[in-house]
Structure formats: structure tokens, C-alpha cells
């Protein structure tokens, strides 16, 4: 079982259908992106959508956001999801390594991510990859729908 990772260059039925399966595994409260939203993600210079495949089938995804600040180019990893059928087979690691390589290639100073404490396997992976928990508070402001 060989995992390949690539940056999505365009949106096709394969990507659209795969995310319709993967996103509910990531969040029960967030709908899968529409085709036009996927197009916006894939075409944006600020985001890179990584997809992992096993035997040609998309089994995982990760979004890398890149943004310039006065203190340098920063990167943020978001929406990491691996299909439940292949979790533990190295897909998450392959996705994260590809994103880290891209962030470094682009000149990012740091790469951040967040992960719920309940996601023990994911947190173990992030520490193994070299991520360090920061002494910080994360705040969120939510707009009313």
C-alpha cells in the first residue's frame, strides 16, 4: 500500500466526491465544500489543498494556508483528515510532511496547527514530526449565522 501526496491543481468529480466523504469524518457540524468553494480553495495563492491517494483513491486531505505578516511568511495547517479505513497507515504523516516541505520551500518562518486533546493519535504524530505545543491561549470569535 503506497501513499502518494500531491497538491490539487484542479477540481474534478474525484476530488469533489472524496471530500464529500472525508469532511464529515473531520467535522459533523461543517458541511462539505461546494464545487465552487473547492475551486476557490484550489485556485487561491494563499491555500494549497494536499490530497493523499492509495491505489489512486483519495484517502486523505490537508489544507496549508500561507500568509505574509510583518514578521515573515507564516503557514498554518488546517482540516487534516484521513479516511477511517486507512488511519494508522502513514497517510497523515505523508500529508503533513508534504505540507511542511512546501511551507519550507515557500520560505515560511513557522508552521502552526491546532489539534483537540482527544485526538491522541494525531497529537502523537504532530509531536513525532517535531511540532511543539505552545504556551498560548487560542481564542475564537464566532459570527452569528
Question: How would you portray this structure in words?
Answer:
The chain has 145 residues and is an alpha+beta fold. Helix content is 34%, strand content 28%. A 5-stranded mixed sheet has the order 1-2-3-4-5, with helices on both faces. Helix 3 crosses helix 4. The chain is globular.
The major β-sheet equals:
5 strands, mixed
Mean pLDDT score, rounded?
95
- Low-pLDDT stretches: none
Overall spatial form: globular
- N- and C-termini, Cα separation: 43 Å
List its salient traits.
alpha+beta, 145 residues, five-stranded mixed β-sheet, 34% helix, 4 helices
Concise structural overview:
It contains 4 helices and 5 strands. It has 145 residues and is α+β, with helices and mostly antiparallel strands.
